[in-house]
Structure formats: structure tokens, C-alpha cells
Specification:
Blueprint: E1 2-6, H1 16-28, E2 33-36, H2 47-57, E3 62-69, H3 75-88, E4 93-98, H4 104-107, H5 116-131, E5 154-156, H6 160-170, E6 173-177, H7 181-197, E7 205-212, H8 219-229, H9 237-242, H10 248-260, E8 265-270, H11 276-284
Parallel strand pairs: 1-2, 1-8, 2-3, 3-4, 4-5, 5-6, 6-7, 7-8
Helix pairs in contact: 1-2, 2-3, 3-5, 6-7, 10-11
Length: about 290
């Protein structure tokens, strides 16, 4: 199983230089992917801007948005930004897309929350046309071409009933988080079954994510940030706050549980912005 690490672009207190150094350190310590999370209604670094910065200082590590709320973006502009990062990084970008659950992420950019699902499907078709080099304006393409045969890999999040049709048409994988691996496995099962029965080539890529903080000096700051970030989910807040892995033993146990559940990737998302968290995680995993 591949092990990625989150870029703490949404964690309060991260300086711009620290964000860039985090990307360098993650690649140097051997993580397979560098992952951002995105939202409009929070003082986070923009996911695509953060990954563009990471692309400039790395050479190997995969760059992944998990999750980018795609329907809160203008489709052609999003396609252009993604294709630009894909070219700059030498084809290392994978897009993790979701529809979003916070109305304020849409109202702040003047987009309708209620129609986001229908618009998302229309946008996906338009983005793929842009990546394929179709003439969308003035009889010419609008994007630099993606490195890999005119498309960028997409993994989708969300409930299986909504994610499966998008995965079968446009996707390469499924991403899910928020629960222990043994509880996530039954959610993933119908997605895998649909992939196989749909005659898709190869295997479905399944990515899990889990929060972590390592060291006694990080625990209370981790809890404080998770409470702040997930304040809109009061019914699940305690579970999210206390569910982070907070010791090397717990980190290794999470890896084993996600492996047993058949996940292909596990991303450890930091909940404090200190650069030493990269090294502590790598040490815990013997990377």
C-alpha cells in the first residue's frame, strides 16, 4: 500500500515558506503522494495554488487534491489550471473531486448550491473536452495539453450512489475518509463491484485518508484545529477530533487496518502545521 502525506494547506498557522518546505521534505522522506484539501469558506491556501508551488520544488511525488469541490469552480478555468499544473509537474497531478456539502462554499462565489450535482456532471464533460484540445472558443483549444493522452486522472469522493456513475464514466478511483477502515470497507465494496461489472480495465484505485499528529507538544493544537475546521458538524465533532492517530503505534496500526480492508493508498493528513510532523510520520513508518 502506498503512503501519502497531506500538505497542511488548510491548517491554521502555516506560513508560505513552510508550505513549500513541507513539499520538499515529503518527497525527500519517501512519501508517495502530497495531498491538499479544499474549501472556499475557510482561510486555507487554495489547493491548486499550493500544488503548483509544490510542483516547482519536487520531481517525483504525486500531487493530489482530496477533495477539491469542483462545482464551486468555473469549469474551463479549473480545466486550464489543472492542465497547467499537470504540465509543470511532468504529469504528476491527480484530481480528487467532490460535490461539497457546505452551502457557503457556493454562495461566496456566486454559485447555486442546490444544482451543484447536475452542474458537476456538465462540468466534467466540458473539462474533458478542454483537455482533449477541442475548439471551445475562437476555433482553438483553451488549455495546454495534459501530459497523459489528453486527460488528467480523477478520483471521486462522496456517497457511492452518486460517485459510481461518475467513476464509471470519468474516473480512475474512489477516495473516502472519516471512519475507521473496517467501517469504510463496506462503503467501498459496491464501488469495486460496479467497476468490475462495468467492464472497466485494470483495478479501481481506492484511497483512504486519516488525520494524525505526533508528539505530546502537538496533541492539544491538533484537537483545537480539528474542532475549528469541523465546527459545522457538531454531531460528529468528538469522533473526528479524537479519531486522529497520535502515536507511532497508532500510525502503524492504521496502515495495517487499511491494508486489510483492501485500500491501495492511505494518506495521513496533518492536523498541526509543524514541519517536524513530516519527519515524525516518516520515522513512525520507517520510511
Amino acid at each position: 500500500m502506498r503512503i501519502g502525506v497531506g500538505l497542511p494547506n488548510a491548517v491554521r498557522g502555516l506560513g508560505g515558506e513552510a508550505l513549500v518546505e513541507w513539499a520538499r521534505r515529503a518527497e525527500r522522506r519517501g512519501f508517495s503522494s502530497l495531498v491538499t484539501t479544499g474549501r472556499v469558506s475557510y482561510p486555507n491556501y487554495d489547493s491548486l495554488v499550493a500544488l503548483a508551488a509544490a510542483a516547482a520544488v519536487t520531481r517525483r511525488i504525486e500531487l493530489l487534491t482530496s477533495i477539491l469541490i469542483a462545482p464551486s469552480h468555473a469549469a474551463v478555468h479549473l480545466a486550464k489550471q489543472a492542465a497547467s499544473i499537470d504540465q509543470v509537474s511532468g504529469g504528476r497531478l491527480t484530481l480528487g473531486f467532490g460535490v461539497g456539502a457546505r452551502p457557503e462554499d457556493f454562495s461566496l462565489v456566486g454559485m447555486d448550491f442546490a444544482t451543484r450535482g447536475r452542474r458537476f456532471d456538465e462540468d466534467l464533460a466540458l473539462m474533458h473536452r478542454a483537455w482533449a484540445g477541442e475548439d471551445l472558443a475562437l476555433e482553438q483549444p483553451v488549455c495546454p495539453p495534459p501530459v497523459r493522452a489528453g486527460r488528467i486522472p480523477i478520483v471521486f469522493g462522496g456517497l457511492p450512489d452518486f460517485a459510481i456513475p461518475r467513476i464509471l464514466r470519468w474516473g480512475t478511483g474512489y477516495t473516502i475518509s472519516g471512519l475507521p477502515a473496517e467501517l469504510l470497507a463496506p462503503v467501498v465494496a459496491p464501488v469495486r463491484e460496479a467497476w468490475t461489472s462495468g467492464g472497466k480495465p485494470g483495478s479501481l484505485r481506492v484511497i483512504g485518508t486519516d488525520y494524525y499528529s505526533l508528539g505530546d507538544d502537538a496533541t492539544e493544537r491538533s484537537r483545537a484545529w480539528l474542532r475549528d475546521y469541523y465546527a459545522y458538524m457538531p454531531d460528529h465533532l468528538d469522533t473526528l477530533v479524537e479519531g486522529a492517530a497520535r502515536s507511532p503505534t497508532e500510525v502503524r496500526e492504521r496502515v495495517q487496518s487499511f491494508e486489510r480492508a483492501g485500500f491501495d493508498d492511505l494518506v495521513f493528513d496533518p492536523s498541526v502545521p509543524d514541519i517536524k510532523q513530516v519527519d515524525r510520520l516518516a520515522d513512525a513508518l520507517a520510511l
